[in-house]
């Protein structure tokens, strides 16, 4: 008989939609033993720093309402992490420093979050001069893939590291980070619903673009067109961890799991949290993922979650070509069994071991336009 895994140390962190009704719905449902530990969020304008989403895709509220929500979370026993996770650069401009000082003063001394998630090392050092104790989490946007990447950040004494999503299926690198964290008193947190392309060539450009622009649909179209052309990308993505596979990462020593989705509707969140708390989901995996809401991906793409049982534990670790071959073989099998399909009559064919889009339907064609 299989021993029941110890779930007491597993924690979910969830996105902030500034909606107390949704939080209450999640907490009152009480699905399973996995607890909600933290809520993370940021004001939509990001003030002088910015954040990892287009400003017009997240909920906009006033500072006063943000403070009231923060107090509400504190009252019900949930921690709150504030995001300063854009790739921020100091430009030597005094006006920038004045705005930054005012913003940080409001965050640290008025809002009083339990932690800050930051991507810029220079900004972390600046915050440490203001507050030597507030926990700092290193954002995934910092792109940490190895201990070598992490070492320049160690002087700021990070409490947590959310690594680059590419290492989500690279066990060697991931285990090294976890062991290094144990020795240096920080935790590793894995994203679970982040569907970004593996080795995305536009990743840095995309995040820098978001600092100045409100719309980033071109980046999403580029990303989604590649996924639709080569469906293996849904399986290669290191930021996707199925609810059933949480235990696999727990066995590596990882206890924090982040549901991404600040751009999603607040009503989407309870369904996703339920799946991860129960560590079980029957249905379309695409519904759980943080994909640009304008795409309505769950209506276009179907990827049967239950049919992926066994996929992760046998994921190859020898090299990129081996992983591509493995994901291709799985996707061909899923397509043939109608466990992966596109609803707009797009046509796929098998070339060698690869499933490739041959003729795009009307909705899929829009991403290429």
Give the C-alpha Rg. 20 Å
Q: In what range is the share of β-strand residues?
A: 5-15%
User: What is the arithmetic mean of pLDDT?
Assistant: 91
Q: Please describe the biggest sheet, giving its number of strands, its sense, and whether it closes into a barrel.
A: 8 strands, parallel, barrel
Low-confidence stretches: none
Order of helices and strands: EHEHEHEHEHEHEHHHHEHHEHEEEH
Q: What is the H level of CATH, i.e. the homologous superfamily of one domain?
A: Copper homeostasis (CutC) domain
Note down, in words, how this protein is organized.
With 369 residues, this protein is of the alpha/beta class. The protein has a domain at 11-196 and 237-281: TIM Barrel (Alpha-Beta Barrel), CATH 3.20.20. The chain is built from 14 helices and twelve strands. The protein has helices at 20-29, 63-75, 94-111, 121-130, 147-150, 171-184, 203-212, 217-229, 233-236, 246-250, 269-278, 297-300, 320-336, 362-368, and strands spanning 11-15, 35-41, 79-84, 115-118, 136-138, 160-161, 187-191, 256-258, 301-303, 340-342, 347-351, 354-359. The strands form three sheets. Strands 1-2-3-4-5-6-7-8 form an eight-stranded parallel barrel, surrounded by four helices. A two-stranded antiparallel sheet has the order 9-10. The mean pLDDT is 91.
